[in-house]
Amino acid sequence: MVKLTLAELERRIEARRAELGLIDKPESIEALRNKGTNRTEEKRELLRRIEQRAKAAGRTPPRAYY
Q: What pTM did the predictor assign?
């Protein structure tokens, strides 16, 4: 059995991601987001309510497209 520390595992994962060109930049993350073009009206309403509740609680709502 090979034992790895969490730090070593993280280092290996980051090295592999860099090797594959998977860099976490805001524009690359945004390109992967679901833009919601096929959402049902029920899901759109749910996302609206989540946003309203977050704002009412003084929190930043998660980014959602609806």
A: 0.52
